[in-house]
Amino acid sequence: MQKLDTQSETDKSNRDMDTSKMTRKVYDIPGDVAAALDNNGLWEQYRARPPYQRNDYIGWITRGKREETRQKRIDQMVEELQSGDAYMGMAYNAKE
Fold first, then answer.
1. How far is it, in rounded angstroms, from Cα 20 to Cα 79?
2. Contact residues for 28 (Cβ-Cβ < 8 A; gap 6+)
3. For the chain, which has fewer Cβ within 10 Å, the N-terminal or C-terminal residue?
């Protein structure tokens, strides 16, 4: 795994996602979400999720109007990535 402090800005984006089958807007990762992934060492777990899940998390977080709402959603994403068995409050089983 790469050291977090050596990741480029491209590594901290969703530009690597295959969005060819996505019909929704594709969101860029905002700084507060990138910082949460950095601080918790969760880039690998985030990248392991399907593109639609990664995009859904970012869209859901960025649509929060209040800072408290955004932070609550970031915290939920972090918890779900750490546990590996949930996606936006639903059960999730990663394909191997």
1. 29
2. 13, 14, 58
3. C
- Rounded to an integer, the average pLDDT of 27-56 is 96
How far apart are alpha carbons 51 and 66 in whole angstroms? 26
Phi and psi, residue 86, nearest 5° = -145, 155
Residue 19 domain-assigned (yes or no): no
Tally of structural domains, the chain: 1
- Signed CA dihedral, 62, 64, 67, 73: sign only: negative
Strand, helix or coil at 34? helix
List the beta bridge partners of residue 91: 86
Kindly state whether residue 21 falls inside one of the protein's structural domains. Answer: no
pTM for this prediction:
0.81
pLDDT tens per residue across span 62-93: 999 999 999 999 999 999 999 999 999 999 98
Among 78, 84, 38, which residue's Cα sits nearest to residue 61?
78
